[in-house]
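Structure (tokenized):
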């Protein structure tokens, strides 16, 4: 007997359809085996597809499993924000609630809705405090793995892995043009930073006007089966901390940073990051949130034998 599953196709980190980062949401994934979820994610062929299940942790609205076309992820940003929006609009979150938690592999992830709780205009997700690995010293080799010259790298800003739950390698560049020219040679980057066999590689160019608190970015994730991700919410929290710690945005006790992504590949996205900063060496970053808009694109039914 065939099984039927309702699937939403959403555009996340945008306020218009056919932009942002695409997300598939299977609203009730009960009865699907792990290998079937992975096969569905490959079929959807989006950066991620989420599968909504009954929660296993107290205080959570739903369990959310997140798959790229190549593997399951413990945590990811645009799937969290898009799935929270779907639960709210489909009446699967507590009535009138503007804050609730999702049960993900890394633990409960808190989300907050702006606007009408049944049709939120903006969704925020809370991140853990960011952690960073030691600086990668082989700067010329990293640049070459991105088809760039060492002169394209932003001086006095380290290349390093950072994470608020999903680690990525952050590579600061001088200009938007350098960001757009970057192409990743996975074999060459793994020779320099072996962990990139499982990490995404994130290139960024801060706005020269640091008071603007804006940054232009791209993220390559072939290790996850995604050549380039239009918008990565799980990367944005550590990105905000990285920019603040290294003085690449104007300092403030409370700040909001906007990351533009996906423009190069025709999926322009805007990811908003808020955080608190206290004096220290390095500065102490806390209360990280990442947010954006969500727009529905498609609503369909998947039939599985």
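Design, position by position:
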């Amino acid at each position: 007997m065939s099984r039927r599953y309702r699937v939403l196709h959403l555009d996340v980190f945008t306020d218009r359809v056919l932009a942002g980062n695409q997300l598939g949401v299977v609203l009730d994934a009960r009865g699907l085996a792990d290998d079937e979820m992975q096969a569905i994610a490959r079929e959807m062929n989006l950066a991620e597809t989420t599968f909504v299940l009954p929660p296993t942790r107290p205080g959570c609205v739903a369990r959310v499993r997140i798959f790229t076309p190549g593997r399951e992820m413990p945590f990811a940003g645009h799937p969290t924000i898009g799935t929270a929006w779907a639960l709210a609009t489909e009446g699967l979150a507590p009535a009138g609630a503007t804050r609730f938690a999702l049960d993900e592999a890394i633990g409960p992830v808190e989300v907050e809705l702006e606007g009408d709780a049944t049709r939120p205009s903006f969704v925020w997700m809370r991140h853990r405090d960011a952690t960073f690995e030691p600086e990668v010293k082989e700067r010329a080799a990293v640049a070459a793995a991105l088809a760039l010259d060492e002169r394209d790298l932003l001086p006095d800003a380290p290349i390093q892995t950072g994470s608020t739950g999903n680690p990525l390698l952050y590579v600061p560049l001088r200009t938007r043009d350098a960001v757009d020219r970057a192409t990743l040679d996975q074999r060459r980057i793994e020779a320099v930073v072996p962990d990139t066999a499982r990490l995404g590689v994130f290139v960024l160019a801060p706005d020269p006007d640091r008071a603007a608190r804006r940054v232009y970015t791209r993220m390559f994730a072939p290790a996850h089966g995604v050549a380039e991700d239009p918008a990565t919410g799980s990367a944005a929290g550590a990105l905000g901390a990285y920019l603040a710690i290294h003085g690449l945005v104007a300092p403030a006790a409370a700040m909001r940073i906007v990351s533009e992504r996906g423009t190069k590949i025709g999926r322009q996205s805007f990811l908003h990051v808020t955080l608190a900063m206290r004096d220290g060496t390095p500065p102490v970053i806390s209360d990280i949130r990442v947010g954006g808009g969500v727009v529905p694109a498609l609503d369909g039914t998947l039939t599985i034998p």
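Reviewer-requested clarification: The helical segments are 34-44, 77-89, 139-145, 176-181, 186-192, 233-245. The two ends are 6 Å apart (CA to CA).
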